[in-house]
Amino acid sequence: MSLASSATRGAVVTLFWQSSRVILQLLTVVVLARIIAPRDIGLLAMVLAITGFAELVRDFGLSVAAVQAKTLSPDEKSNLFWINSLFGLLLTGIVCALSGAIAGFYGEPVLSTIVIWTSLTFFLNGVATQFRAELNRNLRFSALSLAEIVPQFLGFLAALLVAYTSPTFWALIAQQLTMAGTGLVMVVLLARWWPGLPKRSAPVWHLARFGAGLAGTQTIAYLTKNVDNISIGYVWGPAPLGIYARAYQVAMLPIQQVTAPLSRVAIPILSQVSDDEKRYLNYLLTGQSVSGFVCSVIYGVMCGLAHPLVLILFGANWMGMVPVIQALAIGGIFRALGQISYWIFVSRGLTGHQFRFYLVTQPIIMLMMLAGLPWGGAGVAIGVASGYALLWAIQLWWAGKVSGVRIGELMRNGVLLFGSIAVPTACLGLAAVALVANPFLAIAVGLAAIAVFYLLVFALFERPRQQFAQLRQLYFNRKAGKAKAVVSGAS
């Protein structure tokens, strides 16, 4: 099968499974928010904002390095497995030892218990890392998606069972442990691979060097993404953080379930065609069009119809989420577009350049977040949106500069997606909310207006029709892709 066919098949499978994951995760967020109080959700968010850093240290970029490498021997895979497992075990012990300090930082003694229990996920995820990388490396996207959605569903069930008797943070702890444990079991069963004993004859220093640059970049990005949770929790307490954290979780669903999974398809494919500039740029533009269009539509709807959606799904107690979601949705569009720069850095082995870029730019975004802290979660969210809009343009320019990729067309395509898709969608939703009082009717009117708008755009302008035809051919005309591969092989 050709790379084009593999990319097509992988993207189709990934988007199919991710649509299921979006529905399941949204259901999980909504149902648990109806059962568990904002304070308990905020307590877990306090812990994860700090301990999540340990997850980055545990991985050290080795999982992506294993996927990106063009060749990887069986002994190298085994060594990576033992390194990841050892790091996971060490970090479980270190985080447990720091549980009292974390609780003291926030002034919430109960956090010590939450830290100890959730730290077990580091070891479980460490053992699972190389099995998951093996699935990704072999382009087994159906198996990889199955290994994600099944644990997510089982984690949801575990949370519901515990919440039935104790609707507190214990339900959320049960969810975390169940997802990590069942995720490990799934990838082991599906990977069709088993590690051998570690061997000195198969050094992995070259992968560690690649991973170090990526880990440094991810560390800075992680601190940027979590300075909001840490600062809100420290200044405003667990309940306001619970509202912000739930809004953030909803707003990040498109990023987590569309752009991040597409990276699993894009990075191994782009790494293999990185020497062919024309094909490489074509894949980048296609990926940007897919993720940018989908996320622009979703975030536009989310921004415009946030008020009735929060009222219906979460209830009156959670209305503080509305301005937070609206601001984060705007930032989310630029974060989705910015994923293209990440693909360029990783697929071309330029993680060191990305790390140095992040050293300069991420502190600026942190300052923009903290500038909104006096206005609570909504102020911080506005800082997030402003920071990521600025980062998108600068990061794409820098990626083009160090990689040699012509980013002019990528920049124009990104601006077009934001201006012609996201902005009109949000404005139509806001107009419907302003004109219609009933929340259910407001959503119906807003979605109808958005649908009519897209029909008019497709009818009046040729470029959207061309892009839609390209996407349809890429993601649904798989037979044509296979036929093309046969013809190419014959020639």
Structural features:
single chain; 491 residues; mainly alpha; 21 helices; globular
Oligomeric form: single chain
Distance between the termini: 15 Å
Q: What's the β-strand tally?
A: 0
Give, in order, the helices and strands.
HHHHHHHHHHHHHHHHHHHHH
- Average pLDDT reading: 82
Shape: globular
What does this structure look like?
By secondary structure, the chain is mostly helical. 86% of the residues lie in helices and 0% in strands. The chain is built from 21 helices and no strands. The protein has helices spanning 3-35, 38-59, 62-68, 74-97, 99-106, 111-118, 120-137, 141-165, 169-190, 205-236, 238-251, 253-272, 277-304, 306-313, 321-347, 351-371, 376-403, 408-435, 439-460, 462-476, 478-490. Helix 4 runs antiparallel to helix 6 (111-118). The radius of gyration is 22 Å and the shape is globular. 49% of the residues are buried. Mean pLDDT is 82; it is low at 474-491.
Compile the SSE list and pairings.
Elements: H1 3-35, H2 38-59, H3 62-68, H4 74-97, H5 99-106, H6 111-118, H7 120-137, H8 141-165, H9 169-190, H10 205-236, H11 238-251, H12 253-272, H13 277-304, H14 306-313, H15 321-347, H16 351-371, H17 376-403, H18 408-435, H19 439-460, H20 462-476, H21 478-490
Helix pairs in contact: 1-8, 1-12, 1-21, 2-4, 2-7, 2-10, 2-11, 3-7, 3-10, 4-6, 4-7, 5-6, 7-9, 8-9, 10-11, 10-16, 10-17, 11-15, 12-13, 12-15, 13-15, 13-18, 14-19, 15-17, 16-17, 18-19, 19-20
